[in-house]
Write a structure and sequence with these properties.
The structure is a homopentamer. Chain A contains twelve helices and ten strands. The first copy, chain A, is of the alpha/beta class. Chain A is globular. The model of chain A has no long low-confidence stretch (mean pLDDT 96). Chains A, B, C, D, E: Keywords: Lyase, Schiff base.
């Protein structure tokens, strides 16, 4: 059971002196004392509208937004990531969860072909701090940047300022960085993914979520290792992508961490499109790998219910 | 007579601690202690210019803006929704009404074909709070989002921030969400309407007003049920649309609530284009269904004047 | 001599409680205790550049900007409307005049064909209040909206916020609303003019200046009556337009008020393009009709100098 | 030796009451107690990049920016106009000069053909006041407006607000107004120049710098007289334009003042492209005409060194 | 060993009076008491994404961002220039270094052909001052302007304001100015480079980094001398450009300083693409020339390890 101690947490120097302990608390909560992040991505309720939550191949339970909170409660994860409003409406009944407030969002209606992507801040930091003042476990913020978009500069400016403000308050920040727009020929190009990871570091993020690279030669995990190193002190986590079968999903995750140097995972659809019971077991299997260095086989046993898992630290 | 009690009101966690009771008061006032919203939409005085208020098939009384206030006084509704300026000019003479300030508006002059729609904030929240300080019963705010417009991001940002600020002050918020713009092929697509409802939840709204979906198969009310569930803790209400005969209108409303899971209604033209007497009776018939679970037959009797109706709670 | 008393002035509820008496003072000053507005429009010094002030058919005196102030001093009007800077440079020598500060302006160089019209705020309200603090009789503000322009949303937002701020300070607000832009086929369409009048009310304006409608059937004044009613508690005044002979001008004004329900007039070129003496007599003739319900004949006698006129209240 | 006294200075009513004496001081300093402005324009160091300061026909001394300050020290002028940064770097060594801070600037790289001109504020007023607090003789501000540009509205808004703020602090303001852009067929059209002068007055400027008009009939100075009158209480000064021989230059200046009603001059290249000695003599010749009503012959004698000149007041 | 004393530092007059000593400290630290700047440019981690840090011809060590800090610690330089976030994540372990925070950045994904370049501020100054409060040696700020871009005005406005604010806090400012965009035919045109240098002065910068000019006749260093003079009291430094062999690089640098009048250098790729040991030796060779007026031969000996170098002052 890998455990990091308070003094192993590196506190960036833009954290205000009187918020250093708050930052350490938040970092340890978000990583469940492991230094690795298991992020349950619920922000696509907005980003993908209802297509990810209702229809063919999706468990009917997923149409009710409370499904997300039930999974998080019964399963194991580091943070539930969602928009401020979603959290505000449910957190009173789920006070024990750690929340990461996704600060910007866009729908998928306007295609990249019509217009380069831009995702606007849905509120300022002050509006998030009210949640914290009201007892919500807000441990950090999330923000999406479409690198290479013609609106890149606005998103970089928003993200840079947000990170500075969040750190000043002792919150951690996760950047979602996706190269996208007319200028981007290949969104999964390994050099581009590594560049995105480095950009996240330069902006001061604590974690960066990227898509798995697709190299011309070698495995995705090998290419990911370059990006993880380029990210330096910013932990890199991979997006889960569309729903695949559990063995494939867990094997990929294991490779991303142990070959690719990833510092965790960020998973949404793969979890919430399942029934409550199955989804809960998947969060435990994922956490077994991410937080406790379980093998793929052990994690699969957790998913199949033949093995118990509970994060102890 | 369905009545909800103070402790049944779910207060979102972005309401400032010292404004929780204010929020509960406003929620109960707006819903007349029913948990359902009967919204009298008067904002089209601006949005549709004078076409909805004067001309063929419209009672001459409707050209005088005071007609709206007279209907609300003599009839039964939860809130009168209108722009800040309209309310400021008449509320001194109609102090007993509940007002919902429609914060943004646009005219219908520039067509979607010419330019994707955008509706700008007409004032900040502070300017609304002055009304409240002056004794106006401002219980909440309204804001329109054209989802899928190329200006979606600005409206999402404005709405997200507005909801945070309004909740901090104990006001409720109703979002009008209409998918519209070059990117939107079918504005009444059921998946899109459900997505819009979910987006309203993620932004933290208390109620969302959508157009009734037009499904390829099944009834509109059945499709609406999916959207209502996707909206989670955000109550969904349907727009009334253009003027139809009262029996049709009341039947649709009954189905929206009892099949579609709607939490109320938002009606404008169907009410105010009639003479004062007829309009007053229609608000009572609508309220009988919305607030008191009346049958369509009983509601029609109220509209025809053969049955009395007064909300008691 | 029509006179309204202090308690007949309806104070909008966005006027701050401690500024109610200031608002009443300003309303009575601007309307010379009549409830009707005689607005001397001097803002075209900026809007039309020098074309309205120098050249063929214009009295040479009009090239000197002080001509405007001399007319206002010797003649009779409710307010002199002009840009903040113009007033700042002359008001020390004309302290007895009532001023309405025109807050936004554009030149006529960029045609509507080249670009839809937009008129930007030339200063904030604070900069106007300094004038008041320095003893200038600033009774209100003016703002122009080009309804239907692609920049409509910015002007609506500016106007809405400005009205809220001005009322909070006890100032009255006059909106100039002109439908204009690629989306507007007929700027004088009666429905459109009536819609503009209603929009001004929704924004909370005290007066709205519109162009006289040109109906397909009936007189302009008859069409104006619909707009006046649609404006509700927002007083409607008509723009004077280009210079015509005095009898025609005074007849039109009389009809606008007594048939069209107008609450006054807004006149510029018709006045200042004349010699000082003639201009002074015209302001008195206009005021005789607007403020004192004079007949056209009596007003013409005032213009021709055969009858004395002085507003007593 | 024309001298105006303190009580002859008209203080605009947007000057804060406790800054009236500061304004009078600044006005008298800038005009050297003459009421006329001799402005040494050094802002083209930025606007024209190095083309005006180095190359064929330009004295080599002009490539060193300190040349500008040396001329101002040894010569005679009212104000040295330059960007905030330039002044900040040299003023410690030239504390006796009067400075006018040019608040906005653009380079000449993007042509009007490519894009209509816009010139952005390089800092806010607060940053200028620090200079004053540090002992720099900042007597006023300058701002350029390209009237008729598609970006006109932003420049009008910036200028209007800047003038209000500057006056509130007791600073004078000089506007440079050049009609330019796709909408402007003839930048030197006399009506347009007169309109620009009137616009400067409406914005509240103390002085306006325009290009000399080119009338179809009559002299430029005669056409200028119309503009000077249209500017009212805003003093009009003419731009010097490209370098011409001294007799031509001084004759034109004399006519601009005595026929055209100009209130001074604004000269750059004609001065600084010469050697230090020659440039110094030219500032004295210009000042002899502008400040002391010298004849062209006397001014030429000053330029040629055969006559002494020193402003006494 | 060239040394300047405290009283030889010219403090611009926009430095707040109580920050003059801070400015002197920062100036002396950044220039290692030499008056010349040896800037180690690490900002391309963001600007060029990972292409400058990984791949063919680049030492593998360069993929780890900490490589940059290791070089700076073991080598000799005036400041390490990098984005705020990068510095925040590493400075706790490298407290002895002087940092220059690069305030704006863009990626290289959107080409100039697709869109004229714009680089947005990644945070405000306050967020940088937190670093200083936390003990980081922030001696100054950097900002990039693409002169001639259609977005030039926004960058000029940001830079102008930033310089004013930074000076008020006692920080020095380095501008990177690159003429670029559709309007710029030849980015290395000597007149343009000289103009850029003069623009930096007018904005108030302490140093300006430009690309070496490519004159039609004469050497680059001779052309640079014109630019250095045009920059006046703003020290000019040259960008290092892409990696070349050390003798060529050091010869060019020597010429830039001793012929071209440069005040230092700004070097990135030439240093960090090498192994730690080689990179360290190169920083010392560069510093020997820049800070201690070493000959090319001596500097080469330092690079080759046959000669010791340590800046003493």
């Amino acid at each position: 059971m890998p455990v990091i101690t308070r003094d192993q947490v590196r506190v960036p120097l833009d954290v205000a002196p009187d918020r250093r302990e708050v930052y350490v608390d938040n970092y340890l909560k978000a990583t469940r004392n492991s230094g690795r992040l298991m992020l349950f991505a619920c922000d696509q309720k907005f980003e993908h509208l209802n297509a990810d939550f209702h229809g063919e191949g999706i468990d009917p339970a997923d149409n009710d937004p409370e499904h997300l909170f039930r999974i998080a409660r019964q399963g194991t994860c580091g943070v539930l990531a969602g928009q401020r409003g979603l959290i505000a409406q449910y957190a009173a009944d789920y006070p024990e969860l750690n929340y990461l407030v996704k600060m910007n969002s866009k729908t998928n209606l306007v295609s990249t072909k019509q217009e380069d992507p831009f995702s606007a801040l849905l509120s300022d930091l002050e509006s998030v701090l009210i949640l914290r003042d009201n007892g919500v476990n807000v441990v950090g913020l999330g923000y999406t940047i479409y690198l290479g978009s013609e609106y890149e500069s606005t998103m970089l400016a928003d993200a840079g300022q947000l990170i500075a403000q969040a750190h000043a308050e002792g919150l951690i920040v996760v950047l979602w960085i996706y190269p996208r727009g007319k200028a981007v020929a290949n969104e999964k190009d390994p050099d581009l993914i590594a560049g995105a990871a480095g950009a996240a570091l330069c902006l001061g993020a604590d974690f960066v979520k990227v898509n798995p690279p697709k190299p011309a030669a070698g495995t995705s995990a090998e290419a990911l290792a370059v990006a993880s190193e380029a990210a330096g002190r910013c932990g890199l986590v991979c997006a889960g992508g569309s729903t695949v079968d559990a063995p494939t999903f867990l094997s990929q995750l294991h490779e991303q961490i142990h070959v690719g140097g990833a510092c965790g995972n960020a998973t949404g659809r793969n979890i919430h499109q399942r029934s409550l019971d199955e989804a809960v077991r998947l969060t435990k299997a994922i956490s077994a790998i991410t937080l406790d260095d379980a093998s793929v086989e052990d994690a699969l046993a957790v998913f199949e219910g033949s093995k118990e898992y509970e994060r102890q630290a």
